[in-house]
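Ops channel
N.P.: pipeline sanity check, posting one input/output pair.
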């Protein structure tokens, strides 16, 4: 075979000027190599092959005067054409780090040096042109990327909706990735799932279930085979996490491009865009949380204002001729679960006092307190006794609140004319009576807390108050207040503070209790609401 190929080419003609001109103006390396082969065969070579050689792997790029399917190089560096050994002369046309272009002609054939030089110059010029085009392309792409990233930042700054942000980002990504299939799944702080998709038949619920258990940036390794198969069926070729500070906020799925496969720079951009989108979603979440917090603070402030208006007007009560009244309520939070109220029965002149402590703190306890307040005023107007008030409160709590919502309370009704104090205690801290003669009496009678059992019979007890005696009602936030060492204020300190208040006004007794309490706890922050009500007989 090689003998016939290497016969002299006696009919070969010198290439024309037009062919040289066409050779010099080739716009691709493939065309230049083909022209090189033709020019070489127009000279002394019967045939010519140009191949790329990389680690003894030969890839044919152009050939003239011969048709060869495969070329190999043995350990001795000898070339075999379609498995047949053949003596050849080789000429290197270019060098690179990975491969070199080699021209093969029959042994003895000579390729003119000017042709080699011109070919190398043409190849280098084409490669330089390719490089310039690639740089220009990258410059345009990067400009588009920067513009798209700027638009994302702008969109994130003016968009207050996650759904709207995903919609805008999804459309931009579809345009940039040149695809008609794309989805974005984002998980919000409240554990809700927001999905935006185009061209994907997967339902929102299914997408959220597939991705919901993934919480690390290495999510791709955690996808099940079933999930991968589903994505392949949907022609999703790229999955990119939305990650911030090691936490995955969601996932972007990009479908196959419409046309040739997107270059690497496109994928790099999508990863960068995903990072920027994740930051935007994180910031949007923080803004939403801030707005919600501000709204909650406004609502809490409004709730506290309403709660304060539900408390009795102490200035009005100061005008009572038969009794003195002083009260103090300090919530551990913005609103209180403690409740106190004072109502005067106009016809009898009796004073009805209630102090209650709702299990729990905050808004829920305050709402329950408001419920008790409404019922208390209605029952007092109907002439209900302390025991009857307790029974009705218990019924309301059992019927209208969940199990576990219970209340401790004490209701006392004072008759100034008879100086009789009738009271009912439902698991509340015991009331304390201070007589002028320096003795302190703890009213021990008590029943079951409210809201536990439906059919509870609440009994009431009564005591006679001496002229000038004072009644102190309080919640457990007072006696359970602790100092830095963890020691509670306790009943003993409370009784001692009251005992030293002989002949004092109700306001002075309250101030003495608060002073003793503050001395004990120091700067320790309260962990429970604190309520104190002092009722003092004026008959002295």
């Amino acid at each position: 075979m090689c003998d016939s190929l290497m016969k002299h080419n006696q009919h070969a003609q010198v290439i024309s000027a037009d062919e040289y001109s066409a050779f010099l103006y080739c716009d691709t390396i493939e065309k230049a190599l083909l022209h090189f082969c033709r020019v070489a065969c127009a000279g002394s070579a019967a045939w010519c092959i140009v191949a790329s050689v990389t680690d003894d792997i030969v890839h044919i790029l152009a050939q003239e005067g011969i048709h060869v399917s495969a070329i190999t190089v043995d350990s001795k560096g000898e070339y075999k054409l379609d498995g047949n050994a053949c003596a050849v002369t080789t000429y290197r046309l270019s060098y690179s780090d990975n491969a070199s272009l080699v021209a093969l002609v029959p042994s003895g054939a000579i390729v003119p040096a000017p042709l080699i030089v011109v070919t190398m110059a043409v190849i280098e010029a084409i490669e330089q042109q390719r490089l310039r085009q690639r740089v220009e392309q990258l410059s345009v792409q990067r400009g588009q990327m920067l513009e798209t990233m700027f638009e994302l930042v702008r969109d994130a700054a003016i968009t207050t909706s996650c759904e709207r942000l995903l919609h805008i980002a999804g459309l931009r990504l579809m345009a940039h990735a040149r695809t008609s299939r794309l989805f974005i799944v984002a998980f919000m702080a409240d554990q809700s799932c927001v999905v935006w998709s185009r061209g994907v038949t997967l339902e929102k619920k299914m997408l959220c279930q597939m991705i919901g258990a993934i919480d690390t940036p290495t999510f791709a390794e955690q996808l099940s085979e079933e999930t991968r198969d589903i994505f392949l069926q949907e022609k999703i070729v790229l999955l990119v996490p939305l990650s911030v500070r090691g936490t995955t906020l969601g996932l972007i799925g990009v479908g196959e491009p419409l046309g040739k496969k997107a270059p690497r720079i496109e994928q790099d951009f999508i990863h960068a865009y995903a990072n920027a989108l994740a930051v935007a979603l994180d910031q949007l979440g923080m803004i939403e949380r801030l707005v919600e917090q501000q709204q909650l603070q406004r609502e809490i402030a409004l709730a506290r204002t309403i709660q304060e208006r539900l408390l009795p007007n102490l200035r009005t009560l100061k005008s009572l001729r038969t009794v003195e009244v002083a009260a103090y309520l300090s919530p551990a939070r913005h609103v209180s679960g403690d409740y106190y109220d004072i109502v005067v029965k106009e016809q009898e002149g009796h004073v009805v006092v209630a102090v209650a402590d709702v299990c729990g703190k905050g808004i829920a306890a305050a709402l329950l307190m408001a419920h008790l307040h409404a019922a208390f005023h209605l029952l007092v107007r109907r002439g209900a006794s302390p025991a009857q008030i307790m029974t009705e409160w218990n019924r309301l709590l059992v019927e209208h609140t969940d199990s576990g919502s219970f209340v401790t309370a004490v209701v006392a009704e004072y008759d100034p004319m008879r100086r009789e104090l009738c009271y009912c205690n439902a698991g509340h801290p015991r009331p304390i009576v201070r007589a002028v003669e320096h003795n302190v009496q703890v009213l021990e009678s008590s029943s079951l807390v409210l809201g536990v059992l439906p059919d509870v019979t609440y009994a009431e007890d009564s005591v006679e108050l001496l002229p000038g005696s004072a009644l102190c009602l309080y919640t457990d936030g007072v006696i359970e207040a602790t100092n830095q060492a963890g020691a509670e204020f306790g009943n003993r300190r409370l009784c001692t503070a009251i005992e030293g208040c002989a002949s004092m006004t109700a306001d002075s007794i309250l101030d003495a209790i608060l002073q003793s309490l503050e001395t004990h706890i120091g700067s320790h922050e309260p962990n429970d609401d604190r309520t104190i009500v002092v009722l003092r007989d004026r008959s002295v």
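N.P.: looks fine end to end. The first helix runs from residue 2 to 5.
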